Amino acid sequence: MGRTPKPLTILCHPDIAAWEEVQGLAAQGHAIWTAGSQLLDPESLSKFDLILHPKAWRMDPAHRKYLKLAVDAARKLRYPKEK
């Protein structure tokens, strides 16, 4: 895998940062940052091109049609069905 000419700044949850795919992105030259449970203010989050977290959702106009799916998935995570 070669180095990318257009690296991204990526914030990852520590569990996701250990993934093989994320390590591959780091090897390509992307900047991988990890964050634990500390809360980051919106101003500091804006410096990241991508945020990888089990509960993170990115919504911009291009993803507008997926809003209902995002809400449904978030509800399933927040309120899992009892078995």
Description:
The chain has a three-stranded parallel beta sheet. It has 83 residues and is an alpha/beta fold. It is 34% helix and 13% strand. The chain is globular, with a radius of gyration of 15 Å. The termini are far apart. The mean pLDDT is 84. The chain has one domain. The chain is built from four helices and three strands.
Mean pLDDT: 84
Straight-line distance between termini: 44 Å
Annotation, overall tally of beta strands: 3
Strand content: 5-15%
The count of domains is: 1
Radius of gyration from the alpha-carbon trace, in angstroms: 15 Å
Q: Note the overall shape.
A: globular
Count, helices:
4
Major sheet attributes? 3 strands, parallel
Low-pLDDT residue spans: none
Structural class: alpha/beta
Q: Level of helix content? A: 25-40%
Key words describing this protein structure:
single chain, alpha/beta, 83 residues
Question: Secondary-structure blueprint of this entry?
Answer:
Elements (H helix, E strand, L loop, with lengths): L8 E4 L1 H4 L2 H8 L3 E4 L7 H4 L4 E3 L14 H12 L5
Parallel strand pairs: 1-2, 1-3
Structure described in brief:
With 83 residues, the protein is an alpha/beta fold. It has one domain (9-78).
